[in-house]
Amino acid sequence: TAPSITQLERAPARALCAQQDLALLAALQQVSGWEPAVMMEALGQQFGYPVLAMAGLQGLEPDFDLVAYTDCAQRGLVAARDATGQAFLLLSDPFDGAAEDWALRR
Prior knowledge:
Elements: H1 7-20, H2 24-32, H3 36-47, H4 54-58, E1 61-62, H5 69-75, E2 77-81, E3 87-91, H6 97-104
Helix pairs in contact: 1-2
């Protein structure tokens, strides 16, 4: 299992955000020193989200009827479907609750 992102790691990451104008996700990556795959697993565990590897992502098709391309680009997310038609919301930054809330209200 992946390590957890604790409050101890978030505090220095938030300070780094303020100092270098970074997103929290980028700052956590720097502070933790974890490989990207480890960070993804930890985030998946923290938020209760499934984590898709590249092969899983490549099996999805964007659905710009659900969320328009321009909205996806502006908000850092993509609505997609798998081969069975199941919809997924892919987030570039799980700490961006405003973007997730916006997409889920659509």
